[in-house]
Amino acid sequence: MATEMPGTNNFDDLPPDGGSRAWVVVAGGFLVILNTWGVFVSFGVFQSYYITKLQRDPSDIAWIGSFQIFLLFFLGVFSGYPTDMGYFRILVISGASLTVLGTFMASISQSYWQLFLAQGVCVGLGNGLLFAPTMSVLSSYFQKRRAMSMGIAACGGVTGGLIFPSMARTLLPSAGFGWAMRAIGFIQLTTLSTALVFIKPRLSPRSSGSLIDWAAFKEAEYTLYAIGSLMTYTGAFVPFFFLASYARDIQGMTYVESLDLLLILNGVGILGRLFPSYLADKLGMLNVFTVMVLLSALSMYTWTVVSSATGLYVWTVFYTLPMHTKRFLAGREGREQGSGKSLGGLYFLIELRSALSLNVKSTAENRVENQRSRLGSRLFDYESTQEILTNYSRLEYIHWYVRGVNTIHSYPTVKDGEEAAYYDLGSHQRSVTTCSAQAQLWFNRGLVWAYSFNHHEAERCFQWAAECDPDCAIALWGIAYATGPNYNKAWAFFDPEDRQASIRKVHDVLGQASHLAKQATAVEQALIEAIGARFPPVDDIPEDLGPFNRAYADAMRLVYQRFSSDLDVAALFAEALMCISPRNLWNLDTGQPTGPHTVEAREVLELALQATGGSEHPALCHLHIHMLEMSPFPELALPAADRLRGMVPHASHMLHMPTHIDAAVGDYRRGVDSNQEAILADDIYFARETGVVFYVAYRVHYVCAKLYSAMMSGRFADAMSAAEKLEQIIDSKILAVKSPPMADFIESFVGSRAHVLVRFGRWEEILDIKLPTDRNTYSVTTTIIHYARGLAFSALGRVAEAEIAQREFETARTAVPISRLNSVPCKEVDVLGVASAMLAGEIEYRKGDFETAYSSLREAIKREDALAYSDPPPWMQPVRHALGALLLEQNRVEEAEILFKEDLGFAEDYPRRRAKLNNVWGLHGLYECFMRSRKTGEAAFVRASKEIAEASADIPLKASCFCRTSVTGQGACC
After folding, report:
1. Cα 800–803–808 angle (5° rounding)?
2. Quick one: residue 296, left, alpha or beta (phi over 0 = left, psi -120 to 50 = alpha)?
3. Other CB atoms within 10 Å distance of the CB of residue 198
4. Is the pLDDT of residue 10 over 80?
5. CATH class held by domain 20-200+211-403
6. How does pLDDT run across 588-627, given as a tens digit for each residue?
7. Centroid of chain to Cα 131
8. Strand, helix or coil at 857?
9. Number of alpha helices (DSSP H) and beta strands (DSSP E) in the chain
10. In the beta sheet, which residues pair with residue 586?
11. What three-state secondary structure class fits 26?
């Protein structure tokens, strides 16, 4: 059947597909089915007994059993939703209680209506509350062995069909009806109590949408399959009710001989559940189901032409095998395995028919041959209709596969009842070993998400690919790839809990992948083997995992040597090399690679980019940007950056990545615009997805990158909108997440409003900012607000208050945890060291101690230059802008000129990658220096760049920093 994407709730790990816990649940399911279906398929015993005892029409007696099965299915409609909500235990305890109560009440019933209420209603209600929730929980424990596990559990039905008729056969003549029913009741009490201990839900509670998954019926193949399953149940139960009475009334068999037929009918069912279940796991449920439906239809057609007792025995065996198989497999193909609601939708149809199908006239009233033939023809019609619909649904399913449409994999939008197409991830694909078009589709999506550094979404897609095709080994590789470390989240950024859980998960999936890899291609086998080197043993995880990065790179080198023309392999190998020293590929001061791995990775990337299709490969373009962003020549990555723009339209990280090069070459206007596209893409993503945690840090990153580009280009409105966006995104709920420790990753950016107001000299507005009430969680925010207040008081000439703010800043700084990060990999305590020296310098300047002030500001520059590389920079307002402005205010033009040349990358002795090319503040300061020192030629050289930069600013620039009091006080500087 068609599959759909998992819901927007957290996507649980893949089913364990075995293990003691799972098989204990199977045992519990066996006992539940023994007491639901096992009692029901034994109803033929009671049918015969009630006809004799109550002297009622057989069709009247059939209403007791038919209403019981009606309630079994009907309650499935309503029990699925609370099962998904987490009320499984309440449902099954209630169901077990009603089942046992109904059986004991039947033992003391004397009239037809008493038996109807006890056995038909009470037992039926209990069965309905037991069956669907149990099947939902059971199916969640298995994937590859799902049919077999459910087949074993379903053997409880035929086991009950042997036990209960045998008990009735022995006890009815000797002990009477009352004690026979009580004995059955005591067995139910014991076995159901055991089942309640055994069965425990695996999936987390989840809730969404309506009581029934009506969206399933929008899919033609699902609807046709559901109707086919309905027809399965239409004729499936007639022999269970009427075979015994037919044998006595038509064939002249004795009561004991007629009960033997029921024992055969149920006993052969064990084989009818296990062997086809094994085939279903191997050949596909729908394939086996289709064959068995045809055989069942033929056997039903031949029933009424059987003319002897021997023939009836033979017919019973022939009929039983396909009947049990098709009845068991019907409904096992769902849209979402393990979902109670998905079962409810199918049961809604089945219950409408099952209650009516058994209320047919007894065959004893149809002794005339043509009437017997008519009954056989009618049953054959049911079965043939089912066969046609089932096979048409199978063709429709294949039709979906061939078309490969995305419309059946839609994400819910914010508005209920609407659906939107899946995200546009571009055209990149990789053909993998699978017979499932849906597994291929989800693998492609997972791979592009992983290349786009949304590893959360990548893992979900790879998991769904594995769900669509349990034999797809490379999908399990994808789960391991998405779960492990990457260029942005190195092993050092895994907290202990996250690291332990991730390594354990990877070992589990790689164990399955290795088992399945024999059917995979050589390159898939090589990738599966190589990625195992990335992870330590789960029971011996060392503190330093760096050697495993190198081991993985070495393993991937061997894969690359065998499959060097494979662009995905080239990208994965290059990434493995880059992860040896992530975010530290080049020495910013010397401009040299930090190791041979950098050189090798660059060679691999650039060779692959030159290959056919290489320039359109999302991972190669992405990684080439990371490769060169720290180098002395980041502009060499501009072609890759420009090609990447729009290549993966709905992946926010890919929309953002070109801005790393934009900032490196001083194109801040484009940086603002491209990061805004990434922000909008994330708005769509986070409106649809819940349960996303770590990727929030990426979302924050893109907003910060926009804020930085806006600040460096003098665009106050854009910078403030970014600051407000950060305050909207980073709430107390996300900061409360402990694993991963989200406060450590993103709390530093809550106070970005203060940085923007400092940059644009909005001193009075700074003093209006309120301090957080929770200063432990918001430790950096509290500290930065004190810093900004100190600068504001200083610029306003309120030095005493500035010194109070300075003391409050220093006190707050000591409370910032060492684990708190600014832009990865910079620690906030190091960044706040820049703020401390800068604030001290500003205050000393207002006190008139210029030399001390300049010394403090030069110390701030030294600390700023010592910070590790990140994009955007961890300190967003270059200290050179402030010192240069204050030097110019004291007419120390030559010193200021040196600073601005360094800032803009014009100084030969200053590393280019520490420079902030083309920023409007530095251009304004350098132009002022040239004009005041009468260097008209140099001024003319800078003027065009300055005017172009200022054209996009939305505020008038008077100096390189608003901390310059002559600007603040008089509104002009030159």
Report:
1. 130
2. alpha
3. 18
4. no
5. mainly alpha
6. 999 999 999 999 999 999 999 999 999 999 999 999 999 9
7. 29
8. helix
9. 44, 2
10. 593
11. helix
Closest to 483 (Cα-Cα) out of 513, 452, 514, 462: 462
Q: Which two tokens stand for residue 465?
A: 């690919």
For residue 311, list its beta bridge partners.
none
Distance in angstroms (rounded) separating the CA atoms of residues 972 and 153:
85
Do 262 and 256 touch, CB atoms closer than 8 A?
no
SS (H, E, C) 352-391: HHHHHHCCCCCHHHCCCHHHHHHHHHHHHHHHHHHHHHHH
In a 10 Å sphere around its CB, with 0-12 CB exposed, 13-18 middle and 19+ buried, how is residue 705 labelled? buried
Q: Residue 666: which region, alpha, beta or left (left: phi > 0; alpha: psi -120 to 50)?
A: left
How far lies 581's CA from each of 490, 491, 545, 641, in Å? 9, 11, 12, 22
| Cis omega (within 30 of 0) for bond into 322 | no
Nearest to 53 by CA among 184, 168, 187: 168
In the chain, what is the straight-line distance between the N-terminal and C-terminal CA atoms, in Å? Answer: 75
- Give pLDDT tens digits for 449-467: 999 999 999 999 999 999 9
Q: Do residues 952 and 715 touch, judged by C-beta distance below 8 A? A: yes
Q: Where are the beta strands (DSSP E) in 592-642?
A: none
Contact 488, 581 (CB under 8 A): no
How far apart, in whole angstroms, are the C-alpha atoms of residue 216 and residue 223?
Answer: 7
- The residue written with tokens 């909207």 in the block is 728
Q: 549's torsion region: left (phi>0), alpha (psi -120 to 50) or beta?
A: alpha
> Nearest-CA neighbor of 549 among 508, 578, 515, 585?
578
* Residue bearing tokens 């499984």: 88
pLDDT digits (tens, 9 = 90+) for 76-111: 767 777 877 788 889 999 999 999 999 999 889 888
Beta-ladder partners of 593: 586
Residue with tokens 């399913």: 397
Radius of gyration of the chain, Cα coordinates, nearest whole angstrom: 37
- Under 8 Å between Cβ of 646 and 452: no
**How much is the pLDDT for 228?**
56
Enter the tokens of residue 629. 């962003």
3-state secondary structure of 417: coil
Residue 267: which of 415, 419, 160 has the closest Cα?
Answer: 160
Could you tell me which residues come within 8 angstroms of residue 189 by beta carbon, excluding any fewer than 6 positions away? Answer: 100
Q: Which residues, at least 6 apart from 116, have a Cβ–Cβ distance to it below 8 Å?
A: 63, 64, 67
Of 955, 953, 931, the residue nearest 941 (C-alpha): 931
Orientation angle between helical segments 220-236 and 340-357, nearest 10 degrees? 40
Of 604, 639, 652, the closest CA to residue 449 belongs to 652
CA distances from 112 to 42, 45, 61, 105, 184 (A): 18, 16, 8, 13, 20
| DSSP E strand stretches across 153-194 | none
- Whether 933 and 963 have beta carbons less than 8 Å apart is answered as no
CB 484 within 8 A of CB 579: no
- Strand-pairing partners, residue 412, are 419
CA separation for the pair 337, 4 (Å, rounded): 10
Structure tokens at 431: 């053909």
Sorted by where each begins, the domain ranges of the chain are: 20-200+211-403, 649-729, 738-877, 898-974
Instruction: Please confirm whether the linkage preceding 872 is cis (ω < 30° from 0).
Output: yes
3-state secondary structure at position 418: coil
Question: 852-877: buried (b, 16+ CB within 10 Å) or exposed (e) per residue?
Answer: ebbebbbbbbebbbebbbbbbbbbbb
Cα dist from 485 to 461, 479, 492, 494, whole Å: 18, 12, 9, 8
How many Cβ atoms sit within 10 Å of the Cβ of residue 726? 21
3-state secondary structure of 540: coil
Q: Two tokens at 894?
A: 């030559």
Confidence of residue 259 (pLDDT cuts 50, 70, 90): low
Q: Between 12 and 108, name the one with better pLDDT.
A: 108
DSSP structural state of residue 827: B
Nearest CA-CA partner of 354 in 387, 388, 382 = 382
